[in-house]
Write a structure and sequence with these properties.
Residues 1-29 are annotated as: Disordered. The protein has 92 residues and is of the alpha+beta class. It contains two helices and four strands, in the order αββαββ. Strands 3-1-2-4 form a four-stranded mixed beta sheet, with helices on one face.
């Protein structure tokens, strides 16, 4: 069940055109809106404490993506897109 939820919130699948550095898109499955936020997270079972992964979010999906990551204990912080936030390894 958890993997189904994660898949529904996961990064773009092949049917969605990939966002590029000039037009980053929301990471919510099926959303093609321009991203405005970088949601930074890590899975402490597999990542070092400094490691950060990122999901990008449009204003409409920021809360849902954060809520999912918080429920898993993965959320670290959310920063406006283009702002690096706290130091740490950041890999989308």
């Amino acid at each position: 069940m958890e993997s189904d939820r994660l898949r529904s919130l996961s990064l773009h699948e092949s049917e969605a055109p990939p966002g590029g550095p000039d037009n980053p898109q929301c990471s919510r499955k099926g959303c093609r809106a321009d991203a405005a936020w970088r949601i930074r997270w890590n899975n402490p079972r597999i990542h070092t404490p400094q490691h950060r992964k990122s999901w990008l979010a449009c204003p409409d999906h920021r809360e849902d993506l954060e809520k999912f990551l918080r429920a898993q204990g993965f959320w670290k912080n959310t920063v406006p897109l283009g702002h690096d936030g706290p130091t740490g390894e950041d890999r989308p």
